[in-house]
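cron nightly-structures :: item 1 of 1
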Amino acid sequence: MKYSIAVYGGPYSHQATHTAFHFAQAVLDKGHEIQRVFFYHDGIYNGSALVAPPQDEANLPQQWQQLAEKNGVELVVCIAAAVRRGLLDENEAKRYSKPGSNLEQGYQLSGLGQLVDAGLECDRLVSFGP
């Protein structure tokens, strides 16, 4: 079965990210496929290269990145939500004349059309968040 996941909660402000990550691992462990994880609203902070949790806490953005690399999963961050919250890739940083970018490697900015596509292309679109 082919899944996509939508994450609406921030990595350290809501249980959504943690639960979504464990769901994704379980789906992959059962032999299913995850096409895309779409981060929206405060979920976009999962794509921040500036996240630095204490050593005794999970680094959820990094865990998503490792899961994506290992399993060929797309990590898509909503561009409108990201720019509004100050999460930029190199192109957007230049576009808005900002001094630097802070989107973690392995994540890509894209529009809500990617979320719609995920719902159309996959067998299941599962959402996590407030």
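cron nightly-structures :: done
The mean pLDDT is 95.
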